[in-house]
Amino acid sequence: MNYRNSIPKKHIQCLKVEINIDADGAKLNQNRTARRYLKSLVIAMASLFTMWADAAAVLAQSGSPQGVETVALFNPAAFETPESIQIDRRGNTYISMALTGEIRKIAPNGTQSSLAFLPIRPDVQPCGNSFGFPIMGGIALDHHGNVYASVNSCNLPDLGIWKVTQQGQASLLAKLPANASPNGIAFHAGWLYVADTVLGLVWRIHSDGTSLPEVWTADPLLTPVPLPLTPGPNGLQVFRDEVYVAVSDRAHIVAFPILEDGAAGTGRVHASGIGLDDFAFDVNGNLYGTTDPFNTVIRVAPDGTVTTLLTASDGLDGPTAAAFGVGADRENLYITNAAFPFFPGPNPRRPSLMRLHIGIPGKPRP
Prior knowledge:
Order of helices and strands: HHHEEEEEEEEEEEEEEEEEEEEEEEE
Shape: globular
């Protein structure tokens, strides 16, 4: 049963969309070179992922709850692929558009604007990064509302962690090596923890930018499996002084305690048999994970019990990340659907932001 279609229309409230994007030449859908490159990339990669379609159908055979809403839709023709999400203390939502380098801001009243375009540089060919194509990964927020983003630029001098102020001023906080591939990122006690998808490690970078990036842990539990175009360490979050990393190709979630001196403790497998992208925690330690491209949102209880909450029948199209709201919205989980054109999905594609009522508050913001 399609529960999304069973919800009365008066409860489906799509946010008012007022796009305000600077026409400064960085706007990808006006960059013909970038568009041609991305279209050729889509065609080349699509055939590699069609074999995942049957697996996706198998994973999405559980029933789903009512209470899910689509609150914002994005434009697939402009390669708007929402990859990561953060929500600040005032209720502003920040979303990274993976294939354009844009950080989109959505105000509490639904008004959308472009906070910044970061230089993923699809015009630089051949692409110099480890992925072989330009992409922006995860984002994080600090106490002051600064956004930190993992940027896998084709232009190697731009590859690393970028900082964007509330006013939209962007700067390279930490340059990473040419073979690095920063992805999931989290802010905790002044430090940024960053999963490296290709190198199989976690970087630690101080948010003030005064120290060089350091390898926080390269535990063997993070070592990628050599599967074509399948991420290793992917989503990363901090909960109760432990760094959790979803290692997608190994289908497990690993947790590392942060020791008193800031070093990484011994890793442990928190859950296995689950290929997650990114995730969020509630106050009780339940983990809510997204499974792009398998089109499910799952809950992993502290004891490891897995429950499927949403499937493709609820409107999922490549769920990549999740974050809880704040204040009176703290019991709602927000989910980004990237609808990457190189993964199997519905026709037409449906990049979106969805909201699911959980009934348990999310963990407090940093």
